[in-house]
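Task: fold both queries, return tokens.
Query 1:
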Amino acid sequence: MSLIQLAADLLARADLPAQHDRFVLAKETAFWPPEAVSKLQALGLITQAPAANQIVCNYCDEPHLEPVLYADRTDGSHPFIACPLNGRVWVDAAELARWAVSADAVAASLAESLGTGIRPHEAVPGRCWSLGVSAATANRPAYLVRGSGWPDAAERFQRFRWPPNPLSFHLSHTVSVKWPDVGLAVPLIHCLRDTGELRYDFRGIDLAASPLARFRFVRDGSVWHAAFGGKACTVPARVGFLYIAVLLRYPGRQFRPSALMATAG
């Protein structure tokens, strides 16, 4: 597995709602390329976490999870698990090493790479981090967003007062934004490059453009989000908006009224 593939997996974990899925265990890193741990740590995609306090017993036909205990031996305190079938089973301390996947650490590393000169702070608790502005962002306010594809995303992010023309990096690999004033939305994985060292490369982003903010017509349940020329609004759904959406989807195409109604559904 390449570093980029590992990074993609880690970013996907950071985007998960469940906390327990955001840990990487030593047995998993054993299959990683050499120096992958140090390179991923350097970019903030993983951070050293306290040793695991429970581990799977593989001495039984049916693997089971047991808490890690410690016994004093002549060579020091040594970890073990108390297996109901095999009794005391010694554990190699190295197997308990683990790393955390943290959106906070990703935000800090991203802000440093952008050169914003500030420590990120949570704009939406647990979901959005303000990264600041810099030349790398074309002086646009930058954000890191977690959970943009979650069911509550529209409700959570519509409450936040986004500044004009923001730049948002998303932990999710696919960005489906369902709130207005999104600005330019970029999956963070698109900014990673492996040149021997894993690093962010923002040169592929057209920071001068903001297509999502300038031109948008998207339905979200009982409302439509519309944006044109940098102005955005949210309006209640109407039947006619379905026809407008069809015409926008097929620019230059002519429709008879009956065909337009059938296409709009």
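Query 1 returned. Query 2:
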Amino acid sequence: MKTRHQASKSKSHLHGLIKSLSKSEKRYFKIYLKRNAQGENSASEKLFDAIDQQESYDEKKLKGKFKQESFARNFSVAKNRLTENILRALHFYHHQKSKENTFNTLLNEIEILYSKSLKGLCIKKYRQANELALFLNYPIKILRLEKWRNKLEISSLSDEDNYQEALNTLRLESELNDLLKDLRKKQLEKDSLSLAVLKLHSILEENLLHRRVLKKTHRGLSHLYYLQQNFTMSLDHAQKALKVLNDNEIEEQIHLISNIIYLAVKVKQFDKAKTKLFELRMLQKDFGHLPPLKPKFLEAIANLDLFIKTSEKRIQDALEAIPPIAKELAYYNGEIDHKKRASFYLNFAQIYFLKSEFKSALKWSNELINYKALELHSDLYLHGLLFNLILHSELGNHAYNSHRLKFVEQTFEKAGSIGRFEEQFFQYIDKEEINFEQWQRDFLKLPQNEREKSIVLNFEFEKWLEAKVKKVDLIYLI
């Protein structure tokens, strides 16, 4: 007769399950644990690795290995939890593989239908594939669909003897893409913005513009007017771009509605901002279950909710919203865009700063400047460095600022971002006793374009100087 130990050593369903997994399934399981990180999942990963290393199952050795771990006190619960996690991961893994196979089948069907000139059915299959590509969130699949979108739109126009119109659409779109590329690379000087606005308005005067050209033109104009700080016109074109979107362009809807909310707040249209935020929440209710969209909704809704609260001076409400948002950020971990995550850190710091809670502000400011995924020469990182020095100044950490300043100056020099504002900032922030009245006078002597550089996202440096001179909290001057 076998002893209890021999039985546990010779047979384990969990051991058999782990050993049956392929390399890709094991890799996906680790990814699944990280994406769905809960406290107990680190225990699941440790137990998984230990069992995977055993040729034959030996529970006694496992308990000895983990005797210092809290989960060892209830080993059967830990094993059951690991089994459940593996089965859930396998479900999602094979569900996604199934979706990928469906996508490839649809792509093959599109090619066959196109070759047979069955364009109506071809477009129907294209739409199914497009929706699936959005679900999978694989850029390579979206790119594979892009050529079919262009082919199908040209062919449908040529059927109506509008081939020249199709070529005109592609020509305009090419011009638009070049212009928008320059905008993204910041290659347009300020005096060139007006010419770019005129160019885009001339495109709008063309007859029978394709929906895609209209969308890109209005988005381009919204961005150009924003750069000119004409927020009213920027808002108008963002709303026009939203109107021409298709219902299945969910990510673009999120992006444009977010822009509209931000711009509505800038022009003090708070009712519009709140209405659009509600619209965004309704969109989340309909599409938030799709894995690639979950973090995108968090990025948009949480940031904008904080922005509205701080803009309406509801600082306490904003402070209370920070802990649950921080918890969500930790939950989604690597799924949040690194720039969006960094902007959350800066926003958190600035909200605490408005309440003069400088230690809490410093905690989040440090999260930003120590965030390894952020490029050292990005605007967000550079702004974060300046704001960090301001916080240390408020806390009386002059020795830290003197020590840190050399690194900050070198970072700005490497980024080619030292102007008259930065030079002045470094000169004053290095003083143990800062003469804020003199700093304010010198700041106001700077050219307008240099003073504009002092606006660090939602933090207005000029207002901070005024608050220091008047010896009042910043919140009373915003």
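Both queries returned. Flag for query 2: Strands lie at 455-456, 459-460.
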